[in-house]
Design goal:
With 252 residues, this protein is an alpha/beta fold. It has helices at residues 2-12, 27-37, 74-87, 107-113, 141-152, 170-182, 189-194, 214-221, 226-241; strands at residues 16-20, 45-51, 70-71, 94-99, 104-105, 119-125, 130-131, 137-138, 156-160. Helix content is 39%, strand content 15%. It has a 5-stranded parallel β-sheet with strand order 1-2-4-6-9, with helices on one face. Strands 3-5 form a two-stranded parallel ribbon. Strand 7 and strand 8 form a beta hairpin. Helix 1 packs parallel to helix 2 (27-37). The chain is extended and about 80 Å long.
Length: 252
């Protein structure tokens, strides 16, 4: 049945298949997907839908003005994704799609565990939205911060579910997400430099041995961290050469 659905999706020319995971061990699913990937040249992407927090640890309700608890088991669902992509030999056509729930991961594990692994989409149910004084759907502060991090990574936000706020149409949710995207802080120099390469190891280049293109050197010069380290190293070297007490008299 899985093979037939995948073949039919390929025939339709779908841009992506959604593959939900509901546990950490999925060898049969991985085997079937791997066989399809190696059966021919497919341009279709496969988005593996993984919840941020295990379903058994997640709340079903969202209470207005109540700070959601930080999930302590978000690493469990990260293992689901890690085990699955390992079985598929880290195929580049297999990407991650996060399923956002009422409970949120703590900021540090979120940045370290999720944001660097081919994150393509995030599913946002309408039940997570609160209602403001004017009757429009809004998100709590925790979900707003999470959504801001996702937007920095150019993740596609998929709104799930029917409208639940005073008869407002689904367009009200999209307008709110557009509002958040327009009012987010501008990306830093480092974020602009690293965009698209999160979680990738770069092959070391040797400018003195290899004949590199001028464009490659332009990329080197945009590195906001390396040259700051160079500046600090040169500054400390000069401090070692000339003691501070002799700074005005020693001109070597």
């Amino acid at each position: 049945a899985l093979r037939q659905e995948l073949d039919f999706g390929t025939y339709l020319g779908l841009a992506a298949h959604l593959v939900p995971l509901r546990g950490s061990h999925n060898p049969n699913l991985a085997q079937g997907l791997s066989a399809h990937l190696h059966s021919g040249h497919h341009a279709t992407q496969f988005w593996v839908q993984v919840p941020l927090v295990p379903p058994e640890d997640s709340r079903d309700d969202v209470i207005a003005n109540e700070a959601p608890p930080t999930g302590g088991d978000e690493e469990n669902t990260w293992e689901w994704w890690h085990n699955f992509r390992t079985l598929l030999d880290y195929n580049k056509q297999v990407a991650l799609a996060l399923e956002i729930g009422p409970d949120l991961p703590s900021p540090r594990p979120w940045r370290a565990g999720w944001a660097n692994y081919s994150l393509r989409a995030a599913f946002l149910p309408t039940r997570l939205f609160l209602t403001n004084k004017k009757g429009f759907p809004v998100l709590g502060r925790g979900h707003q911060r999470l959504l801001g991090q996702l937007l920095k990574l150019d993740v596609q936000i998929v709104v799930q579910g029917s409208p639940r706020h005073g008869g407002r149409p689904l367009a009200a949710y999209l307008q709110y997400l557009e509002h958040l995207g327009q009012h987010r802080p501008p990306p830093s120099a480092y974020e602009l430099y690293a965009r698209g390469y999160e979680g990738y190891l770069q092959s070391p280049l040797q400018p003195l041995m290899d004949n590199l293109e001028s464009q490659t050197y332009e990329v080197f010069e945009k590195d906001p961290i390396k040259y700051c380290q160079y500046q600090q190293a040169i500054f400390k070297c000069l401090q070692d050469r000339v003691p501070e007490a002799e700074g005005e008299t020693n001109v070597q």
